[in-house]
Amino acid sequence: MLTKRIIPCLDIKDGKTVKGINFVDLRDAGDPVELAQIYSEQGADELVFLDITATVEKRKTLVELVRRVAQKINIPFTVGGGISSKEDVSALLNAGADKISINSSAVRNPELVNILANEFGSQCVVVAIDSRYVNGEHIVHVKGGREATSIKTIPWAHEVEERGAGEILLTSMDHDGTKNGFAIELTGTLTKSLNIPVIASGGAGNMEHFVEIFKNNDADAALAASIFHFKEIGIPDLKNFLKGKNITTRI
Amino acid sequence: MGDKIIIIDYGMGNLNSVKKKFDRLKVNVIITSDPHEIESANKIVLPGVGHFKKAMENLNNLNLIPALNKFTLIDKKPILGICLGMQLMANNSEEGNCEGLGWIDANVVNFSISNKLRYKVPHMGWNQVHINKESLLMKEIGSQSEFYFVHSYHFIANQKSDILNETDFEYKFTSAVEKDNIYGVQYHPEKSHETGEQLLKNFINL
């Protein structure tokens, strides 16, 4: 049976791990390579690295970081942040990343999803969607959540699937940083209407929250950052807890 | 370790992640697309991600097939196919309706899923493998161990005796094969943490 995946996310700024509370107030949570190695040893199923200050001049730093991570860990990892071309993707995959995630650049240029899927295969193209509930609608936000668009989240997810995305990483900005649980309804709507896997992100605060998102198959994987970084929840404990609730993970 | 191990580079996906795992195990491997290197190799890894037909075309264009056939079928040295590399060992694939290398009596087909919202394709993530027969490749790997998969097409081995692993998705499929010196795994040992590392070690130690 295909297991549910637990994915720690490392937000990277200037080569360091940070985690924003509602996308502001960044705190230092350590060295990304060291953290990645710890998570891999503890039983994380995959890792996601999001470069939240990706700029052109920082690109080389990220590629170098990816290279170092790839030497140290032997589980799959995804890299995102500021990726907007085939060349960006090629450099990251060659450095050892397994998948890349695109967000604002896909909104700006939806054709990019097709281009990357055709060139590198759908299996390595993750489309990240930052969604916030605005005036009764789930709306896609870009630029690290700072800017609203006019695009609705659910149709957008279907569009990128059509275009060749292999996976959706859905972050609910309403839940992110609150530690009140994942956005079950929105995530479940996507998971149950898309043919590609959906990763739930935003809101994990305790182990019960993972049970809630998995028990009715509302997500294929769940991502969290600060609760893992600050050791509020250990991955082995979480996986044992899920096992006790009849949710299968890799142990 | 005096063995010469080579990874075949035929333009299908990123081979660095495979090479890095051998580096971690302190085993020297060469990435090459030169048929002459195959002649002097002791072991071959045939990785690959992507489209079956394109892969066969690339192998053809690089003139790798005669050397690979000799290595595998005449010299009978160990070869490990990973993911698409395993699928290429079959008679044919539905992906591009294309003939394969034909080393193993098998067909590669698209996943035929009825409940598509429950069983998503690509089959991606960690899944268990059942070990169907004794094998040096599976040494110190427990039955029901989990490996990392990413694929949309799967192998159907026509000879039961060739099946090394099976995995449950909506239905059971062949996730690894072993026939004499020929090994193929649908999953990615290079991504499968310590279990995957053990498998690569087992291959090195064959």
Descriptive labels:
heterodimer; A: 251 residues; alpha/beta; TIM Barrel; 8-stranded parallel beta barrel; 36% helix; globular; B: 206 residues; Rossmann fold; 9-stranded mixed β-sheet
Written account of the structure:
- Chain A is α/β, with parallel strands linked by helices.
- Chain A has one domain (5-244): TIM Barrel.
- Helices cover 36% and strands 27% of the residues of chain A.
- Chain A contains ten helices and twelve strands.
- Chain A has helices at residues 32-42, 59-72, 86-95, 104-108, 111-120, 153-163, 184-191, 207-214, 226-229, 235-244, and strands spanning 5-13, 16-21, 24-28, 47-51, 77-80, 99-102, 125-134, 137-142, 147-152, 167-172, 198-201, 221-224.
- In chain A, helix 8 (207-214) links the parallel strand 11 (198-201) and strand 12 (221-224).
- Chain A starts with a strand and ends in a 7-residue tail after the last helix.
- The relative contact order of chain A is 0.15.
- Chain B has 206 residues and is an alpha/beta fold.
- Helices cover 24% and strands 31% of the residues of chain B.
- Chain B has a nine-stranded mixed beta sheet with strand order 2-1-3-4-13-12-11-8-9.
- In chain B, a hairpin with a 4-residue loop joins strand 5 (92-93) and strand 6 (98-99).
- The mean pLDDT of chain B is 94.
- The chains are: A alpha/beta (251), B alpha/beta (206).
- Chain A binds chain B through residues 1-3, 5, 40, 45, 70-71, 74-76, 93-96, 98, 121-123, 166-167, 191-197, 217, 220-221, 250, and chain B through 13-14, 16-17, 20-21, 23-24, 49-50, 116-128, 146, 148, 150-151, 168-169, 188, 190-194, 196-197.
